[in-house]
C-alpha cells in the first residue's frame, strides 16, 4: 500500500509535470509561430523596401536626365532670345539712323527748292549725293539685317519716292517693330 501511495504520488507528479511541459510546449509553439510571422513580415518589408529603393533610383536617374535636357533647352532658348533682342535693337538703331539721314536730305531739298533755276546744267557734281547716300545706307542696312521693310523703303527712295512718303513708311515700320517687341515681352 505504501508502494501504491508512493506510485500514485509519483504518477500524479508525473502528470502534473507533463501538463506543465505541454503548456510550455504550447507557449513555445505560439512564440515560434509569432516569431516566424514577424520574420516573414520583416522579409516582405525588406523586399518591398529594396523594390522601392530601386524604383526611386530609376526615377532619380530619369529626373536628372530630364533636368539636364530642360536646362539645355532653356539655355538654347535664352541664347536665341538674346540674339533676337540684339538684332531687333540693331534694326531699330538702323531705322533711327535712316530717319536722320532722310531728315537731313529732306532739309537739303527744302533749302534747295527755294532757289530759282535759271539754267539747266547737265553735269552736277554732288547735287544728288544725299539721296544716293540715304539709298546706299538703307540698301546696306536691309542687306545686313535681311529686312524686307528696309528694302521696301530703299526701293521707294530709288524710284524717286518723296521723302514724306518714305518717312511715313519708316514711322509705320517703327510702330510695327514696337508692337512686335511688346508682344515678345508679353510672351516671355
Entry keywords:
single chain; 188 residues; mainly alpha; 0% strand
Number of distinct helices:
4
The radius of gyration is 49 Å
- Low-pLDDT stretches are 111-126
Cα end-to-end separation: 113 Å
Order of helices and strands: HHHH
> Taking all residues together, what is the mean pLDDT?
82
Largest sheet: none
Shape: rod-shaped
Oligomerization status of the protein chains: single chain
Q: Which range does the strand content fall in? A: under 5%
Q: Can you give the helix content as a percent range? A: over 70%
**Total beta-strand segments:** 0
Which structural class should the secondary elements be placed in?
mainly alpha
Short synopsis of the structure:
The protein contains four helices and no strands.
Q: What would your notes on this structure say?
A:
The chain starts with a helix and ends with a helix. The protein has helices at residues 2-112, 129-145, 148-158, 163-187. It is mostly helical and 188 residues long.
